Amino acid sequence: MCGASRLTLTQTPTARFFCHCEICQEVYGKPYSDATVVNASTVTISPDSPIIYENYWSGLQRGICSECQQPVVGLLAIAPFIRAAFIPTIVLGERFTAPKASAHIFYHRHLRPVVDDIPKINGFLKSELRAASIALSGVYGKTPNK
Ligand SMILES: [Zn+2]
Ligand SMILES: [Zn+2]
Fold first, then answer.
1. For the chain, first and last CA: distance in Å?
2. Minimum-distance ligand to the CA of 103?
3. What is the predicted pLDDT for the residue at 132?
4. How far is the CA of 135 from the centre of ligand 1 (A)?
5. Residues near ion ligand 2 (Cβ under 5 Å)
6. Domain segments of the chain: what residues?
7. CA dihedral 48, 49, 50, 51 (to 10 degrees)
8. 89-138, pLDDT tens digit by residue?
9. What is the pLDDT of residues 8-52, one digit of tens each?
10. Ligand nearest to the CA of 64
11. Are residues 12 and 102 in contact, defined by beta-carbon separation less than 8 angstroms?
12. Is residue 27 classed exposed, middle or buried when 0-12, 13-18 and 19+ CB atoms within 10 A define those classes?
């Protein structure tokens, strides 16, 4: 967001979701996060980017820009050779057209009700499963199933 941290993507994101979990609320400073998913192998992070990674229990590494404190990229190993990169949709800017979000996950944690036609997933396990499914779709450049 401040320009200090830079990513290069070679895959157009096809998967996107909103997450209402408490960690996202804290990290993003918003009622929910808005992220797209691509294959981590298609993302190049400029070596001079001042990104600090924090590890979360789920195995997700959240990269925060130390200049502006905004999330830049999250990395998650789905399987030994498959890693997903979560890119905040706002970071994509105008260079990519963001795909339509396929779910609101961790909706039971919502701070503010959302009125739209996107499925609301309640419950921890259901949210985790949906997140994994969306992440896999994103990694393979597919549109997630409803
Ligand atoms: Zn979350
Ligand atoms: Zn920054």
1. 31
2. 1
3. 92
4. 13
5. 2, 4, 65, 67-68
6. 11-139
7. -130
8. 999 888 888 999 999 999 999 999 999 999 999 999 999 999 999 999 99
9. 999 999 999 999 999 999 999 999 999 999 999 999 999 999 999
10. 2
11. no
12. buried
The burial of 70, by beta-carbon neighbours within 10 Å (0-12 exposed, 13-18 middle, 19 or more buried), is given as: middle
Answer positive or negative: Cα dihedral of 105, 134, 128, 31.
Answer: negative
Q: Which residue has the higher pLDDT, 109 or 58?
A: 109
- How is the chain split among helix, strand and coil, in percent rounded to 5? 25, 30, 45
Q: Which ligand is nearest to the CA of 21?
A: 1
11-139 classified as CATH 3.40.50.300 = no
How far apart CA 134 and CA 60 sit, in angstroms, is: 15
Alpha-carbon separation of residue 78 from 13, 31, 116, 129, 144 (angstroms): 17, 26, 29, 12, 16
